[in-house]
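ugh ok fine here u go
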Amino acid sequence: MPELRLLPLISSATEIVHALGLGSFQVGRSHECDFPASVLSLPICTKPAIPVNGSSAEIDALVKDRLRRALSVYDVDAALIRRLAPTHIITQTQCEVCAVSLSDVERALQIEFQTRAQVVSLQPFALADLWADIRRVAAACGCQDAAAQLVSALQGRMAAIQQKAKSAARTPTVAAIEWLEPLMAAGNWVPELIQMANGRNLFGIAGRHAPWLTWEQLREADPDAIVVLPCGFDLARARSEMHWLTERPDWRDMRAVRTGNVFLCDGNQYMNRPGPRLVESLQIFAEILHPELFPPALEHTGWERL
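structure:
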């Protein structure tokens, strides 16, 4: 294998790099790359262009304003990247809001400096795209055999969870909430995970971006379970934003609330990060929807009951 200097600029890419056994070649990271913990000492090459400590509504307004003016939501430190001299820069084309995009990187490369780095752009829209992205990174780095082994192992673990979930006595209806104000349902790979966990997803379509959702739609659907997994939020942050739902006058009338089936998830680490830990995301859905079959192994780390 030739000498590699890898620079993943999205958190899922960092996880893919390490899962492929290439972590020792990583020379930098994005501000969102935080797993495994060993990457925290690496130079940070990106930062958000907007404040990210506001409420859901405030962040939404700032993001929409940036995109309306054709401005990136993220800044790339081109000078630092030049000093790091990566052989490969790994980014994504899936969402310009969720993570540093291909256009962000191309803008930095074109305006700030010249580099011979190979830009590997991941394209995660559905679960099958994760397997393709793992193979894409491996092919660029010359370790295709490692990709085949990793994909097989991850798919095997998912198949085992799915098979066990199929034995559940019921298939509960699920509303997966990806943003709280304004309301947004989860899309892309999340509907697939819910189906694999033997749940019936009510909103969002597999392979498509997360759709907007009205309170009236959620109230009328009256799901068996509400799973809140805000993009970029950990458990504590998700809990702090729940007032957007819990303060509505008819919140307590909903079936999921009455039966104690409202759940918070660490969407930042799991559901909204299209890397190897989507297996754990599937496990979380299985634990939430079928506690009689799945012990709460990831409770308090990946999920908790409201």
